[in-house]
Fold this protein.
Amino acid sequence: MAKNKRLTALRAKVDSNKLYTLSEAVALVKGNAVAKFDETIEFSANLGVDPRHADQMVRGLVSLPNGTGKTLRVGVFARGPKAEEAKEAGAEVVGAEELAEKVQAGEIDFDRCIATPDMMALVGRLGKILGPRGLMPNPRLGTVTMDVKGAVTAAKSGQVEYRAERAGIVHAGVGKASFTEEQLTQNISALLDTLQKARPAGAKGTYLKKVSLSSTMGAGVHVDVTSLEG
């Protein structure tokens, strides 16, 4: 009952029929993040794309200028010097066949997966396990690379993966409630800029249709898309 009252009180502070500017939305969402833990600030955008068509897929990585506030565990499939490079860069889980066996057994102790090109024959067999979790290494995302150090460092520094889901909706965490409004605004602007640049040639009509922000336990706030253009 207390939880329901709290949610009702938070929603009462948000006008569901109003479109807020980005700065207004950030301030409102941050102010409503009053849980006993540091809530994640969530970004959601409805894009005018149909991801079922290959020429309308929107997917990539963006490095947020202020990081995410989350400690990301990185797993790397590599051997020899590249495995050592991964460990030195801070990867928590590094290996080859032995790591593949752990994944097959359901032991997946990482949030981002990177692999050197020579390991993809092995990693490819794990597609049914890693794919649904969004962990399958992908050359286009820079997670299949010989630059293991660079990939691990980028992941650790606040890199976020975005992907348009079936309905063309992109979700991403853009920071924590403890961030300043300026830090959150900078992170959101970086993600928006990346999404705009990722607009596929096959997308017709309005591309950025709806944008909203929320915190883990808070109400959603709709952002005026016209205030984000130009």
Observations:
- The domain at 17-68+159-228 is CATH 3.30.190.20 (Ribulose 1,5 Bisphosphate Carboxylase/Oxygenase).
- The CA atoms of residues 88 and 149 lie 8 Å apart.
